[in-house]
């Protein structure tokens, strides 16, 4: 019996998809994990930077956990995961990046833009492939105009923007191999 052309194409596509799934190292979420890796432990990050709001470390830890839950099939466990992510916030730096034309005020030079930079030290352990383990810093920055808003008002937006980028970079370095 002859198969129609569209049935052949469907059968071929199904075979390709099954073979990709069978190899275990490809996923449509962009991760590149062995099928034997099923759990991840993300320890609470500690704020060692000396700056930022009191909830800074909790915000980062929860954001990291949420990102892994949304983008992998890994189960988050409190201990003994196949993967371990831990670390600390090591940098909180606020610096002027653009002077204004208006010169100075009683505090000194006025800045047209302030830059908040946050750095996070990450220790990653892959219990099944020690060569994939690492310890390194990730950092990112965001600017705001101090003449339009104060730091306390801008801080939540800046932290969200910075942590979104750092979490994405940590994810890529740990499970996506980008």
UniProtKB/TrEMBL annotation:
Pfam families, alphabetized: LptE
GO BP field: Gram-negative-bacterium-type cell outer membrane assembly
Cellular-component GO terms for this entry: outer membrane
Superkingdom as given in the UniProt entry: Bacteria
Protein name: Lipopolysaccharide-assembly
Protein source organism: Cesiribacter andamanensis AMV16
């Amino acid at each position: 019996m002859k198969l129609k052309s569209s049935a052949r194409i469907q059968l071929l596509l199904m075979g390709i998809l099954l073979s990709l799934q069978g190899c275990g190292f490809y996923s449509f979420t962009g991760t590149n994990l062995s099928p034997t890796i099923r759990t991840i432990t993300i320890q609470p990050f500690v704020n060692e930077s000396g700056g930022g709001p009191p909830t800074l470390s909790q915000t980062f830890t929860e954001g990291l956990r949420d990102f892994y839950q949304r983008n992998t099939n890994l189960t988050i466990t409190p201990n003994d995961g196949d993967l371990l992510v831990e670390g600390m916030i090591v940098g909180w730096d606020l610096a002027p990046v653009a002077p204004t034309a208006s010169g100075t005020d009683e505090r000194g030079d006025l800045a047209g833009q302030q830059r908040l930079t946050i750095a996070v030290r990450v220790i990653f352990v892959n219990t099944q492939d020690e060569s994939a383990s690492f310890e390194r810093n990730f950092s990112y920055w965001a600017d705001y105009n101090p003449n339009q808003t104060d730091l306390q008002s801008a801080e939540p937006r800046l932290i969200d923007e910075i942590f979104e980028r750092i979490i994405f970079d940590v994810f890529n370095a740990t499970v996506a191999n980008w």
